Amino acid sequence: QVQLVESGGGLVPPGGSLNLTCSASGFDFSSYYMSWFRQAPGKGFEWVASINTGGSATSYPDRLEGRFTISRDNAKKTLYLQLNRLKPEDTGLYYCFRDTSKLGPRGQGTQVTVSS
To answer: Which of 3, 40, 57, 103 could cross-link with 52 by S-S, CB 3.0 to 4.6 Å?
Structure first.
């Protein structure tokens, strides 16, 4: 079955960085777009980034101001999200999703907390 396992979250001060990882199994990883969404306490899923099957095209919402970078390694069936210049409002659970819809399969999430 489809399995997505996120890791790499933690507590960082404002301005800090984290690198999140999502390990995939149970499907042909290289055939799917992949995405990251996040969820702040008490709020819905918010799109963070998407990447095409080969990793040559990425997209982000403008509000992130270029601070995040999504990438993938199809040989390792792994998705990454580099978070830079983190702000307190970036706090939340970060999930990787298969494809670009928040209705698709996702992992259990990894917590990112930005606080001094």
So the answer is: 57
What's the pLDDT at 101? 87
Tokens of 61: 């919402």
Q: CA neighbours within 13 Å on the CB side: how many for 93?
A: 13
**Spatial CA neighbour of 38 closest among 14, 6, 15, 16:** 6
Rg of the chain over all Cα atoms, to the nearest angstrom: 13
Kindly tell me if the per-residue pLDDT of 102 is higher than 90.
Answer: no
CA distances from 45 to 30, 72, 74, 86 (A): 24, 21, 25, 18
CA 76 distance to own-chain centroid: 16
